[in-house]
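We read letters as residues; the integers encode the fold. Take this protein.
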Amino acid sequence: MGLATAVDVLVTVVAAAAGVTLELSRPAGSTHLIAAPVWVYVAAQVAAAVLLLMRRRRPYTMVLMIAMISIVAPAWAALPAPFAVTAHGGEPRRRQWAVIAVLTVAFLAGAQAWTVADPFSAPLVILSSALLGLYVRARRNLARARSDLVAELTERAERAERERLLLAERARADERVRLAGEMHDVVTHRINLIVLQAGALRVSTADPAARAAAEEMRVAGCQALSELRDLVGVLRRGEDATDVAVEPGLARLVADSRAVGLPVRLVEDGDPAMVAPTVRRTLFRLVQESLTNVHKHAPGAGACVAVRYAADGVHATVSNTPRLRVPDPDLAGAGGGSGLDGLRRRVEVVGGTLTAGSTPDGGFAVSATLPIYVPTAARG
């Protein structure tokens, strides 16, 4: 038996005992509204008390039935009954007070309150019972609200912790992507230059030992590019992160390409200082990747890097003449695996556009238009 059931049984027993005692001790000659034998009044008191067992489940039904019994014999159970209505009854409040008013009138009519010296004592007890029920209900609602608030705050804290962990994981993933982009753009470019130099040494030298060493160097470089491509594939999530390193100028890229035998002409018009650092880094990567592609896919060709810095944006084109030799298959097949799609994504991140295709003379050209500053939408 639970605590609530035990309390209900105790209230029922007390109400029945009090009601029976009231009827048996009633002064001789006193009457109720409806005349009946004493045992009827006693039975009515017991029946009304038993109805208190319904006070939690059906408080309105309980009160109305006790009201009907009270017309026969003013039930002592009518005094604690309003407590059940206000403490356990549903909304609205008007219904609660209407039911309590019916009970009060029935009780007073059955007891013929107008014939007693103090006709207001019973209504005051009924009102006190109702107010006590309101107090208990308010305390219960307050405890429930406090519990709900604690649960909500706990859930918010857990959600904030999950979001923090998610943001941390996303930051780590973005860092991996950034590292993948750096490895593809920087390391691949350098290894390509080494492979080209080894290939040139193998063709130009007459020393068999030097030729064999150059071939070993070229093969090792191609193998390194292949392994690097696999590593970049593991790190890359699918989108390039924004670069943060400060890049050297385009002249350095052109000088590196010339050093390995690729004739490159650099034409710059305008002031690079007017361009935002993020856009300059994107431009650097664009030229770097384009020259790397010329090294791999157009051996013997000449190249031209033309950049114009204007108020409406940066206009860059990297073009090459037709190739003079068949590309090295190992070198052409190695790399980071992102190609022109990676370049296009990088350019679009800063709000630019990129086009690429063959030229009328059989060469190839990559052109891009970049904004001076990264637009707000592109930043988000």
Remarks:
- Residues 73 and 166 are 71 Å apart (CA to CA).
- The chain has two domains: 3-119, 165-379.
